[in-house]
Amino acid sequence: MAEPLTRPLRVVVWSTGTVGRHAIAGVDAHPDLELVGVWVSSPAKEGRDAGELADLGRELGVLATTDEQALLDMKPDAIVHTAMTDDRVFEAIEDLVDFLEAGVNVTSSGPVLLQWPEKILPPELMERITKAGERTGASLHVNGIDPGFANDVLPLTLTSLSRRIDEVRVMEICDYSTYYQPVVMNDLFGFGKPMDQPGFLFAPGILSIAWGSVVRQLAAGLGITLDEPLTEEVDRRPAEVDTPSVSGDVPAGTMGAVRFQVIGKVDGVPRVVLDHITRTAPDQVPEWPTPPEGDGCYRVVIKGEPFMQCDFVHHGEHGDHNVSGMIVTAQRLVNAVPAVVASPGGLVTALDLPLVTGKGLVASA
């Protein structure tokens, strides 16, 4: 068991984008954490106060910098890393290894394959992460909401109620029209592009790299060995009408919705399934599963004895499910910092951590 904290942990937030700005707010609100630095990639943000960048309406007395080495020289206890990694996976991994080698613990929203990199990353790269952690004692934990809590801690906890498990299915069912991330929406998913130009995600094998970590970690938590390779299924549908989206409008006839699955089988039988249903308007493809309310949810379906279904719905005070999706991603990273700092060095997965809670965050009035 970790020793009680005798002082707040000194934390640097790495980037101030769609997740990073919420990470700043989260660190500021956490009684066991102290924000001591903020890294930004844009010279236009250099020298601006973190409270301004996070839209907190007040200054925090911490100025953003593009100087990576200056932040590492501060010897923070942890970095909450929320920089975009989807389009620079291996460069981002190099950044994370640099942090470990500098003796700084890290919680990160990506690259998501590090949630459970077995059979994805080359052994020599895994060895670098392990050796860096062994040498410095620093730990790395990659998580968020999906990949993350919605398809690791939540479903595995629910399976503790099972007598027999036939299949575990973890689902994201969301309208992405208010999700501002043009690279993800346009290049990776291919929304708004002609149907004969699939997004990068749907090239053979890419889904198993991006979400295979989810399926394999669940399998590890359930004590089963999956057939390899994992199975991928993709069903792309055109938008029937011109559809507005904050990341770029989706003209009628271009790709407007997609359902993809990454399926882990045992002796040919599906046992663990990652199932994503992504729309750019809530009324698209009505025959696909829909959320119980609003525009999105995470759903866990456990077939067996007993049958169980859990719908996890969230929304922000000031924004929809895509805004709160950024908040819960940030908070999973922020709230995990004390446990990650207390962990032995190297890669730490959700199966390694103790129960992470919102301790200290109950409102006082």
TrEMBL record:
The keyword Ribosomal protein does not apply. InterPro entries: DAP_DH_C, NAD(P)-bd_dom_sf. The keyword Transferase applies. Keywords: Kinase, Transferase. SUPFAM superfamilies: NAD(P)-binding Rossmann-fold domains. CDD domains: nat-AmDH_N_like. It comes from the Bacteria. Residues 151-356 form the 2,4-diaminopentanoate dehydrogenase C-terminal domain. GO terms for molecular function: kinase activity. This is Diacylglycerol kinase.
